[in-house]
Amino acid sequence: MADQAQPIETTAATPASFRPRGEPVIHGINRIGVWSLYIKEVRRFLKVQTQTVWAPAVTTLLFLVIFTVAMGRSGRMVLGVPFATFVAPGLIVMGMMQNAFANSSFSFLSGKIQGTIIDLLMPPLSHGELMTGIVGAAVTRSVMVGTTVALAMLLYPGVSLAVAHPWAVIWFGLMGAIMLALLGLLTSIWAEKFDHAAAVTNFVVAPLSLLSGTFYVIHNLAPAFQAISRANPFFYVISGFRFGFLGESDIGSTNQAVVWSAVGLGLFNAALGAVTYAILRSGWKLKS
Question: Where do transmembrane segments lie in this chain (predicted)?
Answer without folding.
Answer: 53-71, 78-97, 130-156, 168-191, 197-218, 227-245, 257-280
